[in-house]
């Protein structure tokens, strides 16, 4: 079999570990030929497909590396018009690909599902630091991002303490609060604001004032998709033509402006941004990514196409890509971690 491998959407620590595991398993265990596709689906959209050889040597020594050796793109949309779609189909046939292993988030899974119409069979591997892919309890990259955001919160705490300030730290996560929630708990935030729980400014003001009396500093961890009750999302930009056109970011600064007039302490905001996506994966993510890559190869070898690898109840399995396309896994407001945090005094702004 001839198998293509691509990475789509925003990058994420652990992508190279998946590329390595899927390639090695397909070569060693499945006796397949493996071809890398450059820059996600974009590599299949031009007159000439852009590919990279993926042999044993190309994937040796990359396990620990952040980013993706294949490159990625998060605005490539092969469905943008009929001509592009037809070109993708021609390129897949010209390359002689029997199947493509698509490593990406919900946008990539939706594209992988739609591309059946031009004869492209895919196997999916879930990737995101946001941990928001449906039917998958943990995606690789999330653990690394939580570790990075936790360290940032920890560092911000000492300066907050010295200056007696309210410090806001904004994490990524789009419409899901997993990253803000876990980093907020691990980084000892006093207030955690999630996209799933609209905040009431007065509740935050009250908690900060209480802390002004006692500890004299407050740490707030806010997910980029959080918004005030009855208010709007903070949108950084709209990217026309992208499968994921709404880019979030900046709510930390918005909250700073809302909060400052009500407090004696100075309020400062830090947006962590791409720092959370970069760098080398943690050992947990290297192992999870290796398990995911191995299982994707097994699905290819077994002819179980159109499926995405998952982690459920700690075990590796798979679901139909159709089941996860265009869906997101958000934090249920009654989640055990929210209860734990509330019971130790964390304020969720509600
Ligand atoms: O990787 C997912 C994500 O990190 C989101 O949390 C964030 O909103 C988005 O990527 C930003 O990505 P970009 O600016 O590359 O579109």
Automatic annotation (TrEMBL):
User: Catalytic residues per the record?
Assistant: 130
Cellular compartments annotated: Cytoplasm
**What residues bind Mg(2+), as annotated?**
106
Any single GO molecular-function term of the entry would be: 6-phosphofructokinase activity
**Domain Phosphofructokinase: residue ranges:** 2-299
Query: Could you tell me which pathway this protein works in?
Result: Carbohydrate degradation; glycolysis; D-glyceraldehyde 3-phosphate and glycerone phosphate from D-glucose: step 3/4
Broad class of enzyme this protein falls into: transferase
Keyword Cytoplasm applies: yes
Tell me the Pfam families matching this sequence: PFK
Signal peptide location in the record?
none
Record InterPro entries: ATP_PFK (IPR022953), ATP_PFK_prok-type (IPR012003), Phosphofructokinase_dom (IPR000023), Phosphofructokinase_III (IPR012829), PKF_sf (IPR035966)
**What residues correspond to the site Important for substrate specificity?**
107
**So where does ATP get bound?**
10, 105-108
EC numbers for this chain: 2.7.1.11
Q: What is its main location?
A: cytoplasm
UniProt KW keywords: ATP-binding, Cytoplasm, Glycolysis, Kinase, Magnesium, Metal-binding, Nucleotide-binding, Transferase
Q: Where does substrate bind?
A: 128-130, 165, 172-174, 224, 268, 274-277
Cofactor(s) this protein cannot do without = Mg(2+)
Instruction: Show the catalytic activity.
Output: beta-D-fructose 6-phosphate + ATP = beta-D-fructose 1,6-bisphosphate + ADP + H(+)
Q: Which HAMAP family match?
A: Phosphofructokinase_III
Q: Which family does it belong to?
A: Belongs to the phosphofructokinase type A (PFKA) family. Mixed-substrate PFK group III subfamily.
Assembly mode: Homodimer or homotetramer.
Name by which UniProt lists this protein? ATP-dependent 6-phosphofructokinase
């Amino acid at each position: 079999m001839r198998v293509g491998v691509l990475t789509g959407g925003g990058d994420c620590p652990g992508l190279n570990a998946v590329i390595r595991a899927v390639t090695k398993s397909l070569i060693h265990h499945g006796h397949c030929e493996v071809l890398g596709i450059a820059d996600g689906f974009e590599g299949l959209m031009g007159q000439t497909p852009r590919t990279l050889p993926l042999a044993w040597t190309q994937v040796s020594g990359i396990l620990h590396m952040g980013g993706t050796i294949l490159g990625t793109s998060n605005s490539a949309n092969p469905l943008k018009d009929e001509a592009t779609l037809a070109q993708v189909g021609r390129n897949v046939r010209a390359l002689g690909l029997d199947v493509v292993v698509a490593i990406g988030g919900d946008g990539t899974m939706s594209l992988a599902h739609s591309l059946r119409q031009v004869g492209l069979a895919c196997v999916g591997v879930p990737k995101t630091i946001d941990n928001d892919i449906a039917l998958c309890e943990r995606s690789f990259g999330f653990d690394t991002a939580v570790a990075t955001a936790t360290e940032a919160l920890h560092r911000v705490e000492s300066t907050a303490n010295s200056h007696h300030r309210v410090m806001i730290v904004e994490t990524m996560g789009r419409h899901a609060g997993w990253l803000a929630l876990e980093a907020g708990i691990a980084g000892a935030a006093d207030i955690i604001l999630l996209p799933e729980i609209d905040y009431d400014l007065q509740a935050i003001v009250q908690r900060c004032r209480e802390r002004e009396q006692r500890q004299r500093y407050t740490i707030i961890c806010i997910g980029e998709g959080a918004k005030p009750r009855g208010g709007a999302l903070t949108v950084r930009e709209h990217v026309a033509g992208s499968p994921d056109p709404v880019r979030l970011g900046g709510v930390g600064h918005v909250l700073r402006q809302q909060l400052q007039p009500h407090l004696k302490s100075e309020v400062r905001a830090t947006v962590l941004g791409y720092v959370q996506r970069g760098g080398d994966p943690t050992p947990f993510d290297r192992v999870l990514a290796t398990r995911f890559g191995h299982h994707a190869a097994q699905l290819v070898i077994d002819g179980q196409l159109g499926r995405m690898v998952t982690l459920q109840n700690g075990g590796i399995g798979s679901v139909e890509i159709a089941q996860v396309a265009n869906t997101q896994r958000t934090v249920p407001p009654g989640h055990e971690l929210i209860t734990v945090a509330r019971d130790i005094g964390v304020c969720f702004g509600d």
